[in-house]
What we know:
- The structure holds two protein chains of two kinds.
- In chain A, 43% of the residues lie in helices and 16% in strands.
- By secondary structure, chain A is an alpha+beta fold.
- Chain A folds into three domains: 3-71 and 89-117, no CATH class; 129-246, Sandwich (Immunoglobulin-like), CATH 2.60.40.420; 251-325, Orthogonal Bundle (Cytochrome Bc1 Complex, Chain D, domain 2).
- Chain B is mostly helical.
- At the A-B interface, α1, α2, α3 and β9 of A face α4, α9, α10, α11 and α12 of B.
Amino acid sequence: MRSKPIIACAAVASLALAGSALAGNGGVAPVAPASPNADAIRESYWFVSIFAGAIFLLVEGVLISFVVRYRRRRRPRSADGAQIHGSTRLELLWTLGPVLILSAIAVAVFAKLPELEDVPAAAAGEENLVVEITGVQYYWQFRYPNGVVAIDRLRAPEGRPVELRVTAPDWDVIHSWWIPALGGKTDAIPGTVNSTWFRADRGGVFEGQCAELCALYHAKMLAAVEVMPAETFDTWLAERRVAQTAGTSQLGEEQYEGACAKCHGLAGEGGYGPLLEGNAIIGDARTLERLLREGRGLMPPVGRDWDDEQMRAMTEYLEERFADGG
Amino acid sequence: MAVDARAAEPLVPHWQRGRFASWLVTVDHKRIGILYIATAGFFFALSGFLAMLIRTQLAQADQGVVTGESYNEVVTMHGTGMVFFVIVPILAGLGNFLVPLMIGARDVAFPRLNALSYWLYAFAGIVFVLSFFAAGGAANTGWTAYPPLSAIVPGNGQDLWILSLHILTISSALGAINFVVTIHNMRTRGMTWMRLPLFVWSIEVYALMLLIVLPVLSAGLTLLLLERQFPATFDFFVPTDGGSPILYQHVFWFFGHPEVYIMILPAFGIISEIIPVFSRKPIFGYKAIALSSVAIGFFSLLVWAHHMFTVGLPNYLNGWFMVVSMVIAVPTGIKIFNWLATLWRGNISLDTPMLYALGFISVFTIGGLSGIYLAAFPIDWQVHDTYYVVAHFHYVLFGGSILAILGGLFYWWPKLFGRLLSERLGKWSFALVFIGFNVTFFPQHLLGLLGMPRRIYTYRDEPLWEAYNLVSTLGSYLMGLGLLVLLVAIVKSRNGRRVGNDPWQADTLEWYTTSPPPPHNFDSVPYVSSARPLYDLRRRLKERRGF
Lengths: 326, 547
């Protein structure tokens, strides 16, 4: 029986190694960071791991070796072991040892804190980009300083700090904003605004999802941050501004996929919610707006706080796609 | 001499003596203890079944074993069931059976109150089970039931969930009062605090902590219930009319974190009883182990917001809660090192109770170490609410509490029923449960670090996520098989080996009386002159025989 822990450790170790081979680190540490704050967390993680690993090996090693060394063998069951009642020196040793280790960890965490907390300053003459993030059952809404709105996919410039103001409408529930490669979680709490930031140091799409149970489609409340070269981003933001005013932006489609499709299906085929194809309400912009703003029955008021541009984008998209049987 | 009219009547009325009725009316702490253990066993099967549903659903991405709606109910009821209806009551059951025997008392201080505690627990359990059939299904907001979600979620499942916990908190509070009064007043001659069995020490701290934190939970749940029922009148937690969602989290975790230690301290107590007996040694550092329980109990009241590092508290508060959380690691470490030192130069018998105890030390250590990562709040910002946390608390609550409880059942079964559980089946169950447990929960650490949140009914179909989830599911089946073997062992123990009063040659008073003990427990109790009265007795007998 004493070999069980060894087998288990071996199994676990081989699993971890196989995992590492498959995907960079395979989950033995937080995912590869793409922002200084995620990097600082990962460094703290490795720092704690040094001590945790050592204590793990010490305890399991001592446990296994004592069980092997002092098992009964041919002694009678009732034979006494050494009648030792304790040792003050040893007690002090294994009280002070952990105290020192934990102090070291605490100091290291506090020393890393500024890296995590202090938002890097913008380049001279520039202001940091500030994006308002609102978590709503079951989508993420991003609002840029110029009024551009995007859903579930946040576009961000490479190399520039992006400040995030994370909240949820006061009639909604708690969500939690989390893109693992870009830092830790920030809860989106109704009626409260929390701040966080990232500065993506490489391009790419970084995925994450809501991390606080927010009811039925919590599992589908995905988010992605698309990091692009700064100039590309500037162009995108400016073009989107124009398109949004003109009603030609992707906003309607994004809102459909984020706010509607989780219940009504990507093709409007229905699912948890009813079929949209040819649905009578779709053609009636006023009723549709009321439905989106107030909800009905099981349908939550997904569009309660939408501005006119958003609402227009939504009703036009729905009408174009689903009215008259599509 | 005049004949007393009452003498003609039997002491126990006839109708109460039936096989079934006698259990309904019993006020015997031993029978109540067995009732607790049996009822908790039923809830263990129920909540375990829900766990199997969860793992089956998550074996691969996008499965439809249960719907997204049902999944949230399953997760909520699994967690609530295991915490409130399995671990805490089964510890109350073991405490009920053992505390009076271990301190040489005839019963608990208030036997009728004791019966009331049990029946309230049973009643709460009925409400809990029936809530599955409520309008809108069972509660589906997680065992933590965070508002605004839990305040606005439709249906009656959440209301019944609140009511069943209300009943349960009354049950637990009454039980806790009974433990405290019994331990303080009914110890036999010579049993000073420093001679108290370590399991009784742990029950003392368990009961005191329950008394401190249960009223807080009751208050929080009452507010939630009021806000659900009268949303126009009460605004405690929903911000539309000025409530604070964070307030609930403070209230819940002021109860919730000590609750974790309420579940683990008696498990520590069980381990502290088993390890010395199967090593043929006194426990190493008795005082350190007893007082570290008190220290853990005290500090656990000061750490609640380490569950709330992502809600946006200022960092000086986060820092405080990190440091105090780490402080708890010190007394916990003291216990682990003292248990290891108890093995040193012992005569170790690897019977099933000892296997479970050693398994406990090996996996609880992992749960303790992963706790350090969670206490360091910036790291928690990454792993909070992910499968890393799920892995952590299963290492603590299954690898910790449940393994210790299973070891305790194998250890005390002959005292409960006079018959041994099969050692052969016991060893099989240990092997399957121990390996299955690690295969189930270790990969979940990795999933959490990869970014998989908890409480999701499906996940992004990335190869590594699916691989780890599949391994985890297979492990859970192995663990389930091990628990079925345990069930077989329990059923077969009706014809198990009779082994006399003291099969393990243990040290504490419960082994002094017969197995099972008579209703009055002891004909006589020896004077207690150390923490190991039976060891002293055996030694004296040996010396006398030497003449």
